[in-house]
Amino acid sequence: MQQGTTLPAPTTPPTTGPDTLGPRRFSRGGALAIDPQALGLVFELPAPADRTVKAASGAPVAIVSLTGPTVSDGASIFFQSYRDLVSRVDVALQSEAAGVVLEIDSPGGDVSGMLEAAGQLRAAADAA
To answer: Does residue 111 lie in a domain region?
Structure first.
């Protein structure tokens, strides 16, 4: 900045009107980065379904999907439980599928119950 240059006087933000964060903070065009109504789309997305596809050999292969954080018990729309995963893999192993693939898209989750679930999955695969 050159010597002798003056800065503009600071302005006081308005306390009322369309440029305030008051009553409009949760309405469209307020301070939020997204429209809060957009979060409702989460509830309309279908959960990934287990499915069967054909392998190159022509044999059916069951795909069991796990999406989102994992918890030891008590799955919800935001979490997948280890108990539910083991149950769904058991169903896939009892089907006519020649193999089972786990399709996992998860950032991780509870450590509690994870080793037990892994042991149950291994035992079920060995027994199949």
So the answer is: yes
